[in-house]
Amino acid sequence: MALDRETGIWKSGRSGKRGRATPKGRQLDDTALAEVRALLGDRPRRRDLLIEFLHLIQDAHGYLSAPHLRALAEEMRLSMAEVWEVATFYAHFDPVREGDAPPPDLTIRVCESLSCELAGSEALFDALKGGHDPSRIRVLRAPCMGRCDSAPVLEIGHHHVDGATPEKVDEVIASGDFAPRIPDCEGFETYRGTGGYDTLLRLREGGDWEQVQETVLASGLRGLGGAGFPSGRKWGFVRANPGPRYLAVNGDEGEPGTFKDRFYLERTPHLMLEGMLIAAWAVEAETCFIYLRDEYPAVRAILKREIAALEDAGIVDPGYIDLRRGAGAYICGEESAMIESIEGKRGIPRHRPPYVAQEGIFGRPTLVHNIETLHWVARVCREGPEILSSVERNGRKGLRSYSVSGRVARPGVYLLPAGSTIRDVIDAAGGMAEGHVLKAYQPGGPSSGLLPAALDDVPLDFDTLQPHGSFIGSAAVVVLSDQDSAKAAALNMLKFFETESCGQCTPCRAGCEKAVKLMQAESWDRELLEDLCTVMGDASICGLGQAAPNPIRLVMKHFKDEV
């Protein structure tokens, strides 16, 4: 008897009918495939472009349907599991399974960072949530949007509303204009006319990279994304490894309270771009990747325009600068998680060693710099190391850009000597807001915890805050007053860490969640929280879980009466 007449594995099971006409699993939809192909156009179907392609579909349709994801997997020769795991990792993607309702056409994201919470974001969220039809408008809580100087802030589509109120939201919705507002900035022609890129072109003609490295080291410049590693020293580490080499610009300033990178890019983007190209020249980078957080659509538009101007002027070859778009994940501010994201994967930190200077993007040596760091690389190479090294205050040398928000009269970015104290920073911001008295402050975002007003004479710089259980980080200063609760502020910070943990390691994933539950009690179990903090700090893979205990410990130390 022929095999195809036998019952068994070639049949469809209990029904006894002939085998199925299609493979098991999700079937390919021809319409969805045609739509995905039209969106991708002639772009190469490289694995590292997966996140960029997910953005194309999300922007075009407002969500990621299962048929579109299946079509994208087919087009990129990836498994559906790979595409789905990336789509569900990032907060700004909306994957929708078959049979599930897609999200409404309009989404309002209300920032719930500490600065916005102090400015009334919770009441704003409640008003918007109760004032709009959820079938038409979705209202979500969102982490820091990097606009703390104009809190409370929300985003409608890609339109940010500063100093948001329900009335302002109604006006934007009525206008139907949800595009980002592009600020005026110093463009290529203006920058070039003032000597911009002369330093870069001179170095390319016959410069000595080691001499430039010594100039940067002499300035005292350290990584301004938070780690504080001597900037020039990285160049030698990367150069010591065989090529090809890459450069990655970390533009994912997701630390709540931080907005200095946005401040500079919206005003003088070419300082960062020239600094980047000088660093790329020094390490002979094959490509420069700029990883920019998705919360900065206006900056993305500026960079696309100015990079095109650089290409038109012949300063860089087309494609040499690869602008990549984040998708809403704080963890991608960690350099190895950022590199995973650039490669089109989930932003999960890598185990080290090897370090990214040895094995970074695509397994090749990679130089990673923060945006503000490269801003200063350009200025130091152009104006000399003295621009930083000649400035001294309280025994500290250099300059720092402090992002200042909270209970001050004039929130904003202030360039001050690196040895400035919290009193100096508050004075630069116009003093305390009317009717408020300094009670506490974050020196460097939630990762740095909360310090009391009594520590108002400590220089806010690298290495000066560690004896107090804190650190300067990205210099995101949030000021609290006598009208604020340190306990509530710490809870805000831990809720952020709970949401943003990538979940890779148990101490961080479970630790943040347990900490939030314990901190919601009327009085804290100090012994249990301290034990939890020790486990998280000692056993977490990356800085998120290691720093998450800081707000808890510092509030228990300095604000005992509240907990």
Number of helices: 23
Largest sheet: 5 strands, mixed
- Briefly note the structural class of the backbone: alpha/beta
Helicity range of the residues? 40-55%
Characterization of the model:
By secondary structure, the protein is an alpha/beta fold. The protein has helices at 30-40, 50-61, 66-76, 80-89, 114-118, 121-131, 166-175, 188-193, 198-206, 209-219, 231-239, 260-265, 269-283, 297-312, 335-342, 371-383, 386-389, 422-428, 486-500, 506-519, 526-539, 543-547, 549-558, and strands at residues 64-65, 95-96, 106-111, 137-142, 154-156, 159-161, 245-251, 285-292, 321-325, 366-370, 392-393, 396-397, 399-406, 412-417, 438-442, 451-452, 476-481. The strands form five sheets. The chain has a five-stranded mixed beta sheet, with helices on both faces. It has a four-stranded mixed beta sheet with strand order 4-3-5-6, covered by helices on one side. The chain is globular, with a radius of gyration of 25 Å.
